[in-house]
Amino acid sequence: DTEVTQTPKHLVMGMTNKKSLKCEQHMGHRAMYWYKQKAKKPPELMFVYSYEKLSINESVPSRFSPECPNSSLLNLHLHALQPEDSALYLCASSQVGQGTGGYTFGSGTRLTVV
Amino acid sequence: GEDVEQSLFLSVREGDSSVINCTYTDSSSTYLYWYKQEPGAGLQLLTYIFSNMDMKQDQRLTVLLNKKDKHLSLRIADTQTGDSAIYFCAEIFYGGATNKLIFGTGTLLAVQP
User: Fold this and answer.
1) Interval B74-104: pLDDT, tens
2) CA-nearest residue of chain A to B104?
3) CB distance A55–B97 less than 8 Å?
4) By CA distance, what is A104's nearest residue in B?
5) Following CA atoms A41, B9, B90, B72 in sequence, which dihedral angle do they give, to the nearest 10 degrees?
């Protein structure tokens, strides 16, 4: 299995809702990542997990809460989002450390906040 | 800084070669990558180059690396309409056991039939 699977593919939520994005990989990668991508912009790193521990938080607002319950799963919990949080949310995984050979990305969850 | 710069737009005719350029910042980067993103899709890793290489060829793709000038380029030979997409170069920044992949600004490649 050489894929990163993200669910759901599309999500519409109100500003008072709580929802979660899910990401799964079975490549034995011990580093997992969340990126946010606005239209016509490059992906921006949000969080990095290494060996199931949060190692980088790129000053992301607390309304985004990541969770890595095991080495194959990565969640992003969403609460009280704003319309400007509407974007494509991409999950990725890789080997830890140097010599990674690249990240494998999922196809993303397109989030619309209304 | 972590700025990785690319030209915004490139238009070519089908069958021509395309050259997409990238200027990166971290001279200690071990790997540099090229990703492709089609409309509404995720990111597809096209190729990568190790920093001790000047050139890497992979079928229609040729990557050139100039470490002195921190310049990376991707050449696509015999460009097809299916190559129309946004192309991102990306650079790894290392922080101990953790690394982060930072993307360039992206180049929209439009292939005219």
Assistant:
1) 999 999 999 999 999 998 887 666 788 889 9
2) A42
3) yes
4) B45
5) -160
